[in-house]
From TrEMBL:
Gene3D superfamilies cross-referenced by the UniProt entry: 2,3-Dihydroxybiphenyl 1,2-Dioxygenase, domain 1
Alphabetized InterPro entries for the sequence: Glyas_Bleomycin-R_OHBP_Dase (IPR029068), VOC_core (IPR037523)
Protein's name in the database: VOC domain-containing protein
Top-level taxon in the UniProt lineage: Bacteria
Limits of the VOC domain: 5-126
């Protein structure tokens, strides 16, 4: 086993300035300049996430960031008001794209959306 003092997660984006606006202004997260042209996001609760520019960025095909919200419908309305549409992956999701997992015994209520680089993010109800 290795000895660690802390940990953080990171993923690439295609355009760092577009990411700054999206994560900071549209999502309202705490975004600051990192070292070497990247961005540092401090999530609610203090966990850090590193966003780094990558010219040949390819979006992840899985959820890279989950944001916990107190009430899914209110959070979806806030995303929509900020111009951020939901992704609808079908299956058990409703017409808005919300998987109401609590009502079908499949985990939390959750909805997915994309950042401007095509990375998959989610909001899920605590």
């Amino acid at each position: 086993m290795i000895t660690t003092t802390s940990a953080f997660s990171g993923y690439s984006v295609g355009d760092i300035e577009v990411a700054r606006t999206f994560y900071g202004s549209q999502l309202g997260l705490d975004v600051s300049d990192g070292q070497m042209g990247n961005l540092s996001i401090t999530l609610p609760g203090g966990a850090p996430v590193l966003l780094y520019p990558k010219d040949d960025h390819v979006p992840a095909t899985f959820t890279v960031l989950n944001l916990v919200v107190p009430e899914i419908d209110a959070a979806v309305a806030e995303l929509e008001a900020a111009g951020i549409p939901l992704e609808n992956y079908g299956g058990y999701a409703d017409e808005r794209g919300i998987l109401r997992g609590k009502s079908v015994g499949m985990g939390p209520n959750i909805a997915w959306f994309l950042d401007p680089s095509g990375n998959i993010l989610s909001i899920l109800e605590e």
